[in-house]
């Protein structure tokens, strides 16, 4: 049996510039962090006593006798990539899917990590990220960028740069006290809305309207935000103000990024004392993140009391194998059901 643990991420700056169609021409960069909410993937080989060869538990229950019958495309293609057969797989997440925290890519990283461990192989963070990108973007042809897979694999507070069909990860050097202050000044709220990131990305990048300048402006904010974080003489409140700037820019990159309800919630938060914030992920729903000084946070919570607040802390570990007990495996010679 193999159990993997993979963190969800929150992206602060540069979202959208991690798309190859943009960064291969202009370069791209994001600042993001992982935090202490995870997806867990449990994989073991099936005992040979059942009238099916694989059992998959995710947002539904699948029992199949052929990999081609698997309805979940990500599971099917990850199994095919690593020649995985006759397994029982279960997925559990601390947070709901399709909510802007890179849940699909986190699942991909965790599942690939588990499949390799099942075969007695150890994957590096880079290998995990590259394979997850390959499955989601090249094999499944899903719209989206590269930051989610990289963040989930590596973990931590990082600047991730993209160019020439490649990426590089640079931890942001910040004192533990300053990092704790940033953590404590961020509040995460769940809107209750779920959506497919790939659909939002298709809307954002699939139209003939040129959004290059907005994305260049969002890319420039990555440098500004990194300077704020790493300069101990600069107030972290400037980070919150930059979040407000990037939110306004991002709203201009696609019609589905926001809607009337989200805009209203954002305005309420600003009036209640938040210096800035953003809708995490591609847009359309999910989680709202706000930067708010500690003395004003109770007022903000009351103003948004219809939303669920999600306590969190930053984490640094990235993708892990929590439990490793591989089984000897011999494929069945025949199946009970054909």
From TrEMBL:
<dbReference type="InterPro" id="IPR013750">
    <property type="entry name" value="GHMP_kinase_C_dom"/>
</dbReference>
<keyword id="KW-0067">ATP-binding</keyword>
<dbReference type="InterPro" id="IPR052203">
    <property type="entry name" value="GHMP_Kinase-Related"/>
</dbReference>
<dbReference type="InterPro" id="IPR014606">
    <property type="entry name" value="Heptose_7-P_kinase"/>
</dbReference>
<keyword id="KW-0418">Kinase</keyword>
<dbReference type="InterPro" id="IPR036554">
    <property type="entry name" value="GHMP_kinase_C_sf"/>
</dbReference>
<feature type="domain" description="GHMP kinase C-terminal">
    <location>
        <begin position="234"/>
        <end position="307"/>
    </location>
</feature>
<dbReference type="InterPro" id="IPR001174">
    <property type="entry name" value="HddA/FKP"/>
</dbReference>
<dbReference type="GO" id="GO:0042352">
    <property type="term" value="P:GDP-L-fucose salvage"/>
</dbReference>
<feature type="domain" description="GHMP kinase N-terminal">
    <location>
        <begin position="83"/>
        <end position="156"/>
    </location>
</feature>
<keyword id="KW-0808">Transferase</keyword>
<protein>
    <submittedName>
        <fullName>Ghmp kinase</fullName>
    </submittedName>
</protein>
<keyword id="KW-0547">Nucleotide-binding</keyword>
<dbReference type="GO" id="GO:0050201">
    <property type="term" value="F:fucokinase activity"/>
</dbReference>
<dbReference type="Pfam" id="PF00288">
    <property type="entry name" value="GHMP_kinases_N"/>
</dbReference>
<dbReference type="InterPro" id="IPR020568">
    <property type="entry name" value="Ribosomal_Su5_D2-typ_SF"/>
</dbReference>
<dbReference type="GO" id="GO:0005524">
    <property type="term" value="F:ATP binding"/>
</dbReference>
<dbReference type="Pfam" id="PF08544">
    <property type="entry name" value="GHMP_kinases_C"/>
</dbReference>
<dbReference type="InterPro" id="IPR006204">
    <property type="entry name" value="GHMP_kinase_N_dom"/>
</dbReference>
<comment type="similarity">
    <text>Belongs to the GHMP kinase family.</text>
</comment>
């Amino acid at each position: 049996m193999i159990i993997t643990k993979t963190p969800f991420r929150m992206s602060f700056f540069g979202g959208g510039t991690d798309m190859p169609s943009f960064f291969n021409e202009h370069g791209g960069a994001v600042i993001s962090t992982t935090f202490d909410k995870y997806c867990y993937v449990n994989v073991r080989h099936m005992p040979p006593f059942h009238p099916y060869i694989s059992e998959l538990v995710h947002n539904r229950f699948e029992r199949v006798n052929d990999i081609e019958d698997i309805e979940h495309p990500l599971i099917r293609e990850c199994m095919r990539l690593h020649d995985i057969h006759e397994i029982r797989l279960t997925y559990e997440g601390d947070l709901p899917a399709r909510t802007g925290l890179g849940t699909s890519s986190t699942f991909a990283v965790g599942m690939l990590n588990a499949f390799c461990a099942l075969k007695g192989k150890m994957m590096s963070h880079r290998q995990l990220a590259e394979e997850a990108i390959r499955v989601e973007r090249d094999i499944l042809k899903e719209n989206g960028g590269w930051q989610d897979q990289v963040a989930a694999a590596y973990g931590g507070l990082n600047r991730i740069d993209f160019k020439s069909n490649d990426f590089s990860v640079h931890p942001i050097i910040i004192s533990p006290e300053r990092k704790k202050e940033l953590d404590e000044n961020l509040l995460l709220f769940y809107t209750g809305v779920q959506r497919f990131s790939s659909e939002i990305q298709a809307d954002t990048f699939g139209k003939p309207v040129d959004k290059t300048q907005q994305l260049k402006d969002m890319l420039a904010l990555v440098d500004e935000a990194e300077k704020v974080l790493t300069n101990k003489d600069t107030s972290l409140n400037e980070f919150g103000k930059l979040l407000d700037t990037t939110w306004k820019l991002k709203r201009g990159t696609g019609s589905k990024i926001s809607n009337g309800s989200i805009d209203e919630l954002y305005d309420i938060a600003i009036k209640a004392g938040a210096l800035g914030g953003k809708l995490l992920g591609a847009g359309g729903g999910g989680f709202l993140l706000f930067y708010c000084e500690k003395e004003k946070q109770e007022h903000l919570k009351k103003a948004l009391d219809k939303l669920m607040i999600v306590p969190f802390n930053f984490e640094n570990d990235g993708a892990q194998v929590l439990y490793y007990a591989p089984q000897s495996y011999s494929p069945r010679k025949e199946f009970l059901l054909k």
